[in-house]
Amino acid sequence: MTVLPYARYCDEILVQTALLASLLDGADLAAQVPTCPDWTLRDLAVHVGGAHRWAGEIVRRRATEEISAKEVPGAEGPEGDDPAALAAWLNRGAEESVRALREAGPDAGVWAWGWERSSSFWARRMTHETLVHRADAAFATGRAFEADPEPAADTITEWLQIMSFVQSTGYVPEAAELRGPGRSLHLHATDVPGAEWLVELGEDGFTWRHAHAKATVALRGPLTELMLAFNRRQKPDEGGLEVLGDRELLDFWLERSSFG
């Protein structure tokens, strides 16, 4: 499955942010986020809103070097613990970021920490940053979570690209251990045609591709649940998922596939 059009990413940032903001309505902002245990619900929302403003400022300035978050106006969030004020602040930051992305277009050259230094990188990154953290907020508030198939599948693809990038740069020491010839993982969404990924570990690292093939271990089930497990938001045997083959290899991957 391919990446989404630039305009779709811009739209998704707004959609995912609005859904995340709606979870704050009547919520206890001091509640712990079980999937990010160092954060409260307020911390989570401020993180997302700050990231939107930071990425938007990079694109707005056409920055060629990293901008400190301290230089970004309003990135620290609103004062007080009013859920409505925090939700409004969150939506406003997404709108400002998307405005900058749409004005820049997909090919503007800007600084980015990843493999592609362009506005397109940030549109895609902020889409998935918001989507995955919306899942975190849903877990914290006890609400149901469901993801649209296209961005959900692309979240898995982007995560594989991120792990490949950090492995090649040595940025995350644990990612360097994702190697070893003759071992492979197959991710198979059972409810979305074509949503499959084959990860093959080799001497120098790992490679991945969209394919249906027998692997050392397979993780299969609904796409939303597959996305959550691969992003380490739930256990591989939760949510109707099925692990076939070498569970230790899957755990080995999940323990070492982290970033930030």
From TrEMBL:
Q: Quote a single Gene Ontology cellular component term.
A: plasma membrane
Q: Which GO terms describe its molecular function?
A: isomerase activity; metal ion binding
Which keywords are on file for this protein? Isomerase, Pyruvate
Q: Which residues form the MDMPI C-terminal domain?
A: 150-251
Q: Which InterPro entries match?
A: DinB/YfiT-like, Maleyloyr_isom, MDMPI_C-term_domain, MDMPI_metal-binding
Residue ranges constituting the Mycothiol-dependent maleylpyruvate isomerase metal-binding domain according to the UniProt record: 13-138
Q: What is this protein called?
A: Maleylpyruvate isomerase family mycothiol-dependent enzyme
